Amino acid sequence: MAGGVVLLAHVLAIWVLAVSLRTSWPERVGSDIAVMFIQSETQQALAQPPLPAFKEPELDTVPPPEFQVEPDLATNAIRGAASEAGMLAPRPDPAHFNIPPALPATFKGAVYSTPVILKAHVLADGSIADASILKSSGVAGLDEFALDYIKNHWRLLPASINGMPVEAWTAVGVEFK
Length: 177
Prior knowledge:
Layout: H1 2-22, H2 25-29, H3 41-46, E1 87-88, E2 91-92, E3 116-122, E4 128-135, H4 140-153, E5 156-157, E6 159-161, E7 164-166, E8 168-174
Antiparallel strand pairs: 1-6, 2-5, 3-4, 3-8, 6-7
């Protein structure tokens, strides 16, 4: 039964096609066809007038800020007493190169990249009389080794007031090679 219905539908479709092809369009419509073009939204958007030419903005200059930084002498461990008026802080001595210490044999094979920061008491002759730890390397044995090493091997130019050498404290960093 289903096959008969399909066959009948095909025959009917072919008959409608044959009838429509025998007559021409003007005879079927009976009047003139008006053709009208409608612009799509995309075409309307493209048809808008062009944007005005780019104009460089005028740059205003900003004056530098007006403030003064006052050093906090009480907590400045690097300069300490050297911050007083007319005083020059201890500094590296170009005539005596302070060689970083070699890693002690007990620590060989390990990698230590954090330097020890020490507070050193520099005498008027440039020698280091005393030192204490400001920032540890994280290994107590290395910190103690750095303290002993700078006391026995390093020299600095002493602090001075009006060209006269004086004792002063300064901070130094010790990295192991």
